[in-house]
Amino acid sequence: VEGPQFTYRALVASPLACAPRDLRTAVAAQAAAKLEGKCLRRRWRGDWWTYEVCVGDAVRQFRQPPGRDHDGFGVLAAADAAASRDPGGFAIGSFSHVAVAPATGALSHVFAGGDACDATDGEPRDAAVKFACVDAFRGRSKKVALASAAETATCSYDIVVHLAALCELDDDADLHEKRAAGTSTIDHVDCFRDADGEAGNLA
């Protein structure tokens, strides 16, 4: 029998211990890390431009060759994207830093230092790429997609990348059921709380 000088601390880890904000950030960060080295493309029907987000690297826009008038998606390895990229267009920005919304935990990648913009007297282009669950893609087979791109200010862009994993966070029961069945799109993310009330994250 051990003497009274020994004390123990219990550590219990579970996604149920995660604050919604922290879990949302962790899930998006995991998914973004898996996308590094890949490029997401999309061109909307009737638009001049194809938008390309190479996660952790750069954002670009370029024109499709004539005759490709369709609403198209694509996820390519970075090398394949570089080989198939049409000449011309603009570098919107290179990866700068990660930003997290304080209230919601929404994660964005910020891209800066793009090609000079004539309309803003040579200021460089820039973009913010937000990772989110997009309702229009909810329940579809696509687990990741470039959902939208908008020039919200001259030569400054807001881009949204859909992550199916974030949709699961909207329904805790669905999340835990899928994780128990091994069909969740979320990698293992747990938070822990010990007997002294300290908390943290385990991924």
Strands, helices and their partners?
Elements: E1 11-14, H1 20-35, E2 38-43, E3 49-54, E4 58-63, E5 72-77, H2 78-84, E6 90-100, E7 107-113, E8 116-117, E9 123-124, E10 126-132, E11 144-153, E12 156-163, H3 164-168, H4 172-181, E13 190-194, E14 199-202
Parallel strand pairs: 10-12
Antiparallel strand pairs: 1-13, 2-3, 2-5, 3-4, 4-6, 6-7, 7-10, 8-9, 11-12, 13-14
Multimeric state: single chain
Task: Please give the radius of gyration in angstroms.
Answer: 21 Å
**Helical residue percent band:** 10-25%
Q: Sheet bearing the most strands, described?
A: 9 strands, mixed
Tags for this model:
alpha+beta; 9-stranded mixed β-sheet; 3-stranded antiparallel β-sheet; 14 strands; 4 helices; 203 residues
Structure overview:
The chain is of the alpha+beta class and 203 residues long. 19% of the residues lie in helices and 41% in strands. It contains four helices and 14 strands. The strands form three sheets. It has a nine-stranded mixed β-sheet. A three-stranded antiparallel β-sheet has the order 1-13-14, with no helix packed on it. The longest helix is centred in the first third of the chain and has 16 residues, at 20-35. It is elongated and about 75 Å long.
Task: Summarize, please.
A hairpin with a 6-residue loop joins strand 6 (90-100) and strand 7 (107-113). The strands form 3 sheets. The chain has a 9-stranded mixed sheet with strand order 5-2-3-4-6-7-10-12-11. It contains 4 helices and 14 strands.
